[in-house]
Amino acid sequence: MVLPHEPEFQQAYDELVSAIQDSTLFEEQPKYKKVIPVVSVPERIIQFRVVWENDKGEAQVNNGYRVQFNSALGPYKGGLRFHPSVNLSILKFLGFEQIFKNALTGLSMGGGKGGSDFNPKDKSDAEIRRFCVSFMRALARYIGQDTDVPAGDIGVGGREVGYLFGAYKQMQNNWSGVLTGKGINWGGSLIRPEATGYGTVYYVEKMIEKATKGKETFKGKKVTISGSGNVAQYAALKVNELGGIVVSLSDSKGSIISKKGITNEQVEAIAKAKLQFKSLEQIIKDEARIFDDSIEYIAGVRPWTKVGQVDVALPCATQNEVSGEEAKALVDAGCKFIAEGSNMGSTKEAIEVFESNRSNDVWYAPGKAANCGGVAVSGLEMAQNSQRVTWSNEEVDSKLKDIMYTCFENCYDTAVKYSTDKNSQGLPSLLKGANIAGFIKVADAMFDQGEVF
Ligand code: GLU
């Protein structure tokens, strides 16, 4: 398949297909070949116009989308992204990833993704609210708790989910778990905001444990993190809790580097200011009391080549945020564990660098495995909504941990089972394990349901 007009989707498709082709799966069970052309076409794509009123009373127009990619395992499930870069290639790549990611959680969720090219960054709260209402006016008829359950992604957090939910409820005269990431006092799940970042760190805990045969943990490890949104914030807090040292965070304008380690107080200050879309550069200036001289700001770069020696890298910003060169710099700086909190955080070239260094004990986990904790707790939110119950922090956190640990074991065992290099000394490929394990689960359901035969 060649889709020059959809480069991001092509990249996600190529990653999955080449991971599978470079294993023994098709050789052992050729029937799975038939699934590829079917699973790579979305079941349905909805595209709509969103007209909304700005603060001057003028009409503004944006494109809205929902890609309902695959419903073999459950209702379509996946976030909404509001960002000027949003187009069908981006949403198809995200929806495609989501299918296999959701399968890896072990819960009953299909895959979907949606969003708009609306840029919330320079908008007032009232404009964001009016946009969300207009967006939901077009989307409401296509979603539902048993059909399609959106959530947040880049540019869509608790505030936006609240406005979207309020609009849905009013339009459909129906209070149901149609969105996840809701407020905890009105149907949301505890630990949902923390889930993606925490889950990524739980996954890496297992990588470290397995690779070092239980000898090492996060304690004392230097961890470079990119991004400063929800995923990066909670990943940083969990790393700190486990005794690691967070040496960086970043945003679209630049990076902050701290050799001493970014503190919880600093992460919390960033979290607060990011709600108002302030840049990191601005935040460290405004909060000089909290951000002392130990913090260095470097404009216009991602952290990877600037952090010096590190043990762990967690890309938690957006797609293609690690280039081949940057991957090489990380490996040269001693980085052994790379796990994506972002979706498709690494370029194809970066993945090649990480994968070819497995024999040097470098271990890479793709986003569809390492960041499945977010959507997993969305699945737990759906379960609580259906039962009209609320689980405690401890209960949700222990379920999340269990899902991430099981996901890791599943990726590991699948990689070993279908490996073409069974006698090599290197670590098994979690890239292959994740793609093959997710794919088999979805493919089997598609056979059973007569979607492929
Ligand atoms: N946007 C998140 C993801 O990429 C969460 C999706 C959800 O909770 O439905 O997995």
TrEMBL record:
Q: Which SUPFAM superfamilies match?
A: Aminoacid dehydrogenase-like, N-terminal domain, NAD(P)-binding Rossmann-fold domains
Q: Where is the signal peptide?
A: none
Provide a Gene Ontology MF annotation, just one: glutamate dehydrogenase (NADP+) activity
Q: Where is the Glutamate/phenylalanine/leucine/valine/L-tryptophan dehydrogenase C-terminal domain?
A: 189-450
> Which GO terms are recorded in the biological process aspect for this UniProt protein?
glutamate biosynthetic process
The answer to whether UniProt assigns keyword Oxidoreductase to this entry is yes
Q: Where is this site: Important for catalysis?
A: D153
Relate the assembly described in the record.
Homohexamer.
- Name of the protein in its database record: Glutamate dehydrogenase
Provide the species name.
Answer: Candida verbasci
